[in-house]
Write a structure and sequence with these properties.
This protein has eight helices and seven strands, in the order H-H-H-H-E-E-E-H-E-H-E-H-E-E-H. By secondary structure, the chain is an alpha/beta fold. It has a single domain, classed as Glutaredoxin. The protein has a five-stranded mixed β-sheet. A two-stranded antiparallel sheet has the order 1-2. The protein is globular, with a radius of gyration of 21 Å. The N terminus is likely disordered.
């Protein structure tokens, strides 16, 4: 009888510890559930990585860089026009991608530099920049209002949850942390080249994309 009581007590203690220590997974973070209050830079940043946090161990290998990611074929909606497009539709062009959020002040500063980059490059049919909103609490209407108010006229879309998860898997968790201003360049051949974290000047961006613009198909 004593042994049975001891075993029962141990079982109860183990169940309590499992319940008390349970945490949400990264996938749960991306689930688009309604929230009572709009996400703010402080609240969302608290759930994400900090600007100084390193990329995870799953950052891209050379082999991964040469493979065509699934997100290239994902359907995205241009918030300016309501038309659907995919990254694979932009084949042969150089594409600058920034994962961002409307509430992120660093993102706003970075997009100001992207606007200046467009001024430096002038009108080019072979260059596209894309702002990809990865906050699951923001929708196309909110994003459209933001970019129109700021005068950002390049491509913007809300990232589907599966695309955001793939970004973290391929390029590191920092790509889901908007204040670190994550950006990458897709060259004419479809290869992905992540850029350093932190706000990059228009000249920095020009130096990053110019070698790929100079390449021929």
């Amino acid at each position: 009888m004593k042994i049975r009581n001891i075993l029962f007590s141990v079982t109860l203690l183990a169940a309590f510890l499992v319940t008390a220590c349970g945490t949400s997974t990264g996938e749960d973070m991306m689930t688009e559930e309604p929230h009572g209050a709009m996400a703010t830079e402080d609240t969302m940043h608290g759930d994400m990585m900090t600007e100084d946090a390193p990329m995870n161990d799953g950052s891209m290998t050379n082999d991964a860089m040469m493979e065509t990611p699934n997100w290239f074929s994902a359907s995205l909606t241009n918030v300016h026009t309501g038309e659907d497009f995919a990254i694979q539709d932009l084949q042969g062009k150089v594409v600058l991608v920034e994962t961002m959020a409307v509430w992120c002040s660093n993102c706003l500063k970075q997009q100001g530099q992207v606007k200046e980059l467009h001024n430096l490059l002038g009108e080019r049919d072979d260059f596209v920049s894309l702002g990809l909103d990865i906050d699951p609490n923001e929708d196309s209407a909110k994003l459209k209002g933001f970019v129109e108010d700021k005068g950002f006229d390049w491509l913007y879309a809300v990232s589907p949850a599966d695309v955001s998860r793939e970004f973290a898997s391929l390029y590191g968790d920092q790509f889901l942390n908007p204040p670190s201003t994550p950006m990458l360049v897709i060259d004419r051949h479809g290869n992905v080249h992540p850029l350093p974290f932190g706000i990059k000047s228009a000249d920095d961006l020009l130096n990053a994309v110019q070698p790929y613009l100079d390449e021929e198909m």
